[in-house]
Amino acid sequence: LRGRVKSLLKVNHDRFPGSQPISFDRSAFQLLENEDYFVSEKADGVRYIMLIAHEDRKSTVFMVDRLNNYHYIKEMQMHLQFHDPKSKNQHQTRRETLIDGEMVVERSGNQVRRRFLAFDIMVNSSIIVTHRSYSTRLGMLHQDIIKPYLETLKRDPAIAKRQPFTMEIKKVERSYGIKLVFSEMANLKHKSDGLIFTPVKQEYIPGTCAKLLKWKPPDANTADFKIQVTYSKDRKPFYKLLVAANGVHKYFTHLQLEPDVYAQWRAHPPDNRIAEFRFDPDWKVTVVEEGYAPITQQGGWRFQRFRNDKNTANDEAVVKQIIQCIRQGVTRQEFESHLDKIRAHWKAR
């Protein structure tokens, strides 16, 4: 399967092929003024690429996670045998298709609902479309995937009932519609922790894309590090945070833990695990190096959660940019103060 995806995308590596945004800082306002962007809420879900593969006259579905593992979704087989009223073969199935999106979970009482929010398409019926504009790809996603999918579910309630999750297009607005996105975020039933800005004319770029932007409130910016556990002569554990650099992991900073987390980690050391951390400017970190007196520094990273979906820390340059975003602290109010200028430039184009 990995070989088929590599062939479809014409890439020569086995890494997760999804596009990755960079953090939004104040210089990015210039991008929003000079170029047309779409904006959407940043769902705090699990990133997947959906592979629809033609197998034995059926369209079978696999979900590809960020570790580039492939998960077969048995219950999603039949609904992708799309009905095409223009086709003489009413049982025509699609060939390989790759859809980018995010799985979110909504809970209401004892009810749990999973939704796959599709926000891009990379390969459409075995034809690579990454070179097409984002607006064109969204049109393909709606017309060629979501519309026939919904028609199939409507036509056959038995299929609809078996679905392990629903699939829909993630809603986007023009970049000057930020206020509307913020207002809708307040009513979402899934977690959302920021905004995503995508250039309207941008091609799809696997890996880091310098024009794909993510924004979080200053106090919600996080970074993913690899944890390294070392021990003193008396077996006291110390924790370091590593970043990715040139294909390896290197030391970035020390980590000071809260007492309850320290107790948990001492019992179960998370050496080499990837975890998400939030920067706290008021957090005091004691740095201990063998042969030197301990020193205390102001400001440090605090543990949020383990990232079992990742095996690599953020790149060093990405972490430094995140720190810059935290220090700059672009707020929601600043976005709203730029809206008139962003709208005027969009209309002028």
Automatic annotation (TrEMBL):
Cleaved signal peptide residues: none
Cellular component aspect of the GO annotation: nucleus
Record domain mRNA capping enzyme C-terminal: where: 221-334
Main enzyme class: transferase
CDD domains: Adenylation_mRNA_capping (cd07895)
Domain of life: Eukaryota
EC number from the UniProt entry: 2.7.7.50
Any one GO biological process: 7-methylguanosine mRNA capping
Chief subcellular location: nucleus
Reactions the enzyme catalyzes: a 5'-end diphospho-ribonucleoside in mRNA + GTP + H(+) = a 5'-end (5'-triphosphoguanosine)-ribonucleoside in mRNA + diphosphate
Domain mRNA capping enzyme adenylation positions: 20-216
One MF term in the entry's GO annotations: GTP binding
Keywords: GTP-binding, mRNA capping, mRNA processing, Nucleotide-binding, Nucleotidyltransferase, Nucleus, Transferase
Record's subcellular location: Nucleus
Pfam family, one: mRNA_cap_C
UniProt name for this protein: mRNA guanylyltransferase
Protein source organism: Dimargaris cristalligena
Source organism phylogeny: Eukaryota, Fungi, Fungi incertae sedis, Zoopagomycota, Kickxellomycotina
